Amino acid sequence: MERVEIVTEELGTEPDGTRKHTMMLNMGPQHPSTHGVLRVVLYLDGEKVKEAVPHIGYLHRGIEKLCEDITYQKCLPYTDRMDYLASICNNIGFILAVEKLLGIEDEIPERAKVAEVIMFELGRIESHLIGIGANAMDLGAMTAFLFCFKERERIYEILEMVCGARLTTSYPRVGGLPMDLPEDFSDTIRNFLRIFPKTLNEIDGLLTRNKIWIDRTKGVAVISKEQAVDLGITGPILRGSGVPYDVRKAVPYLDYENYEFDIPVANEGDAYARYLCRMEEMRQSLRIIEQALDNLPDGPYIADLPDIVLPEKELVYTKMESLIRHFVLVYNGFETPPGEIYHAVENPKGELGYYIVSDGTGKPYRMRVRGPSFVNLQALPDMVKGGFVSDVVAAIGSIDIVLGEVDR
Amino acid sequence: MTSPPDPVDQIRERISGYILSESTFRGEISFAVGVESIVECCSLLKNTLGFTYLVDVTVVDYLTVKFPRYEVVYLLHRFGENYEENLRIRLKVALEQDGPAIDSVTPVWSGANWLEREAYDMFGITFRGHPDPRRILMPEDYDQFPLRKDFDVRDRESSKRSFERALDEGLE
Description:
Largest interface: A-B, 42 and 41 residues
Order of helices and strands of chain A: EEEEEHHHHHHHHHHHHHEEEHHHH
Number of domains of chain A: 1
Number of domains of chain B: 2
Shape of chain B: elongated
CATH class of chain A: Mainly Alpha
Distance between the termini of chain A: 23 Å
Strand content of chain B: 25-35%
CATH topology of the largest domain in chain B: Beta Polymerase, domain 2
CATH architecture of the largest domain in chain B: 2-Layer Sandwich
Radius of gyration of chain A: 23 Å
Oligomer: heterodimer
Helix content of chain B: 25-40%
Number of helices of chain B: 4
Structural class of chain A: alpha+beta
Radius of gyration of chain B: 19 Å
Number of helices of chain A: 17
Strand content of chain A: 5-15%
Largest sheet of chain A: 3 strands, antiparallel
Largest sheet of chain B: 5 strands, mixed
Strand order of the largest sheet of chain B: 1-2-5-4-3
Structural class of chain B: alpha/beta
Order of helices and strands of chain B: HEEHEEEEHEH
CATH class of the largest domain in chain B: Alpha Beta
CATH topology of chain A: Cytochrome-c3 Hydrogenase, chain B
């Protein structure tokens, strides 16, 4: 990726004497297939892409700066707004990072951990549905998109039932869950587990052997194994290029090492391989959810840590001590040990890492978010160089970016 | 029975010439490295010791907390044989307040490209030898570095100027 300084480049002369130039084409920031506000400047030779330069930053809100001025608990809603297609995964990642900083991982009740695994995998399915659906819609397969959205709605209903919000969940708390799981939690999820494979098979039937889909994605937007590792790409793109790296297996969190699941890997490194990886990952997520549901224990849902966890609402209204504690926790936050940690989770789109530097107060001194979409988007110029303009659409869709996370 | 050698010890031995100090917090190991030897150290880590995956490059501004002021942080990951080892280390480089500059590690990992651009954009750290040293998130003509601790959040002049210039360009 070198800096492109020339807008037009001489491409030789036609027989009749007219000179040929590359053409500059602005794709985005308002373009239906750029999934938000991504702008890609394409330098074209006819229909072939000679150079693609992504421009980002249109959705920059300075989340890292904002978090420096608020307590850890108040940072949580900001993490929703990064990868808003899987906000529950961002939330859990952030909570786990803070718990690691506090060194309270061992005090988290089992019920909270298992529930977080279930929610995390639901978030993964939700995000992959959009990833595949939007990619298919960009290439003209509207039906697959509608099937995906229908199923996503079911997941949103579960999220709404559990935490009251559909998109911006802000769900777990440092120490566990803010409230116990609803009574019909298990039944609803089991119902989902029964219905969802059927739809998954329908999506599979619509796309996997669809001639047009294969023509548009196979051999398109290829990235080799070496290139992918060198660029720091993670998630289904890396696994689609043949590297079986998954944070859940590599650096397990939430006791993922106790669950039985496979990491789908494909070797082609093209958009079709990524699609297959995502499909299989959803099936594996269902496996994980099923195992988690079987092992969902009763008992406390939040750790007994009065210095960190807010007291129960009823006690706040009736007991002076609880009211004071509530006040202190909301105003000053909890004390953290000075130090720095990096904690990563396997978000649907790749490795989401939080690097938190603490100076001992209730506010993060520095919070860095390593967003997977940001790093993955770097691969776009390499993927589309030499291909057709229409393949740029397939490439962006198959990287599955969320601009909220690219720009943060 | 002898226990297998600790991989961190092996790494420490190989790069001992570059390490200034080290620290461990919550099981994560960080090595402080001198600013002049960062590229050398990184290529050794990547080419000989197998740290093929650069997870992140970021900066922390310790305005009054620490001296020197800036710290560039590199997070490295080694997959190991058959992707089973998954070892992580952290390198830290301290940089002076005046004209902070460091050699770019893009020749070692091309993925450092955008990460370093963001570090420049947010903290004003110059990465020498970077192939594309432009701002990445903020407007190109913006003249502040927002994640610095002495950045005045209430000062809207810079963003206003950028916005007005963009408007003028749009009207032309």
